[in-house]
Design goal:
Elements (H helix, E strand, L loop, with lengths): L5 E4 L6 H11 L5 H13 L8 H13 L15 E5 L2 E5 L6 H12 L6 H16 L7 H13 L9 H7 L3 E5 H5 L1 H14 L2 E7 L5 H12 L2 E4 L12 H5 L7 H7 L8 E8 L4 E9 L3 E5 L14 E6 L2 H12 L4 H19 L1 H4 L2 E4 L1
Parallel strand pairs: 1-11, 5-9, 5-10, 6-9, 10-11
Antiparallel strand pairs: 2-3, 3-4, 7-8
Length: 365
């Protein structure tokens, strides 16, 4: 097993009511504006587009210089992130996390946000109910007085109260929840880029495990060069019984090595894209070199490629969830082909090459 082998798993997201109750209990100095800010961030995310990443990085660096780390929730006193709902978290500025990484995740989250004012209005009603139950230190009358003016003004983004700032010294960025669970891997990627100038990440795993989704999240944050193993399906002339008997033989590993693995250090690379409807390579892609290259797909760990990557991940899910996703993605009529053919091929490859155990991280989806 890889000496740094680790499992990354995202726990279920707490409900809006659970989050409000936790914050109400821990942040006793919270004022109505702080509660509204929490709900606003859950509904709208970071709240604005990031048009100048350099300026955003500069602001993060300046804020980090004066940050006073306070525990966000009961624990070891070194907060990293806390749940706010809506698929977002507050990622706290911390000397242990690169400000460049924080800025990447903040920018990617801000530029991908979607707004849902209906959810926000419903959250305000939930806030009213919980305030009436005594969850917060402020009263229902105090909340209503605040909300009357707030709604009249058009329900804008708000700042933390002075009481909250003085008590908790908040210093964070709102980012998508998916990035929070990936922090161990993302910190490794950032360090690799800082030390080497570039990083090659391999994301392997069984079909329908979530490899493409994971690769997309990371690629968005880094503007990465993303290469899919699906573009290297085995052509008809190589589909022999002997080839299919090979562990990992169900991919055109020769063409991948010649066109991709051997040229990752070049300023750009060009490779053919296999079209399953034509059963042939029908087009080509030319991709410039980027600070991060992601190779995504089953068989990306094939030993034929050699030690061509810097970091590696194996994505896994339960067999029940895998079949559910295949049905949703490909339809019931294609399920037997996956069960009887493609899944056994992938399992034979993973077992023969010990892919899961050799990977730096296991990611559960």
């Amino acid at each position: 097993m890889h000496p740094d082998h680790d499992l990354i798993k995202l726990p279920p997201q707490p409900s809006a009511e659970e989050i409000l109750r936790i914050h109400g209990e821990f942040y006793r100095e919270m004022q109505p504006t702080d509660a509204v800010k929490l709900l606003y961030q859950a509904a709208f995310g970071p709240g604005h587009m990031i048009t100048d990443p350099s300026a955003a990085l500069e602001r993060t660096c300046l804020e980090l210089e004066s940050v006073t780390c306070q525990p966000s929730l009961p624990g070891d006193g070194t907060p990293v992130f806390e749940e706010i709902g809506g698929g977002y978290v507050r990622l706290y500025l911390n000397p242990g996390i690169s400000p460049r990484l924080v800025t990447r995740l903040f920018a990617a989250s801000a530029n991908a946000l979607s707004k849902n004012p209906v959810d926000f209005t419903g959250s305000l009603n939930l806030l009213r109910r919980l305030t009436g139950e005594g969850v917060f230190a402020f009263s229902s009358d105090e909340l209503e007085n605040y909300l009357t003016d707030y709604i009249r003004s058009g329900m804008p983004a708000v700042s933390h109260s002075e009481a909250y700032r003085k008590a908790y010294h908040p210093a964070y960025r709102v980012v998508r929840r998916e990035y929070a669970r990936l922090l161990p891997l993302l910190c490794r990627i950032e360090k690799c880029i800082e030390e080497n100038g570039s990083c090659i990440l391999v994301i392997d795993g069984f079909c329908a495990s979530g490899k493409s989704t994971l690769a997309g999240f990371i690629a968005q944050a880094y503007d990465a060069r993303l290469i899919h193993m699906d573009d290297f399906f085995l052509p008809p002339e190589k589909r022999t019984p002997e080839r299919f008997a090979e562990p990992g033989g169900n991919v055109d590993y020769e063409r991948f090595k010649t066109e991709v693995a051997d040229h990752l250090a070049d300023n750009e690379l060009t490779y053919g894209v296999f079209d399953c409807s034509e059963m042939a390579v029908t087009s080509h892609l030319t991709l410039p070199k980027k600070s991060l290259t992601i190779i995504e797909g089953a068989y990306s760990h094939h030993l034929f490629f050699g030690d061509y990557h810097d970091l590696d991940v194996f994505v896994q899910t339960s067999p029940e969830e895998q079949l559910k996703r295949i049905r949703q993605r490909d339809g019931e009529e294609y399920l037997p082909m996956f069960v009887n053919r493609w899944i056994p091929f992938e399992k034979a490859y993973e077992s023969a090459f010990d892919v899961r155990a050799r990977s730096l991280y296991l990611i559960e989806t």
